[in-house]
Design goal:
With 106 residues, this protein is mainly alpha-helical. It is built from 4 helices and no strands. The two termini are 47 Å apart. It is a multi-pass membrane protein.
Length: 106
Amino acid sequence: MAIGAVSLLSIWAAYVNQEAHALWDDLHQISLKEDAPACLRAEVTAFMVRLGGPSIGFTTAGLFVIDKECILTIFGLVVTYFVLVIQFSPRGSIASDGNLCNCTAL
C-alpha cells in the first residue's frame, strides 16, 4: 500500500514539474512589441528567467526535484538491485550432498 502511494505521489510530482516547464515554449512564441508596456515586458522576462533557471516542482527535503528523469533513475536502480540479488542468490550452488559450496563445473 505504501509503495503504491509513494509511486502515485512521485508520478504526480513529475507531472507538476512537466507542466510547470511547459509554459517555456508558449512564452517564446509571444511577441512583445515595443508598444507593450514596460512593466509587462519586465514581468514576462522575469517569468522566463525563472522558468529557465532551476527546476520547478516538488523536492525531496530540498535535495533534488522529482521529475521524469528521477523516477526512471529510481526504477532502474530497483531493477538493477533485484537482478543482482537474483544473480548472486545461492540457489544454484548446492552440492550433491545438500551442502552449499562455491564450486565451478567444468
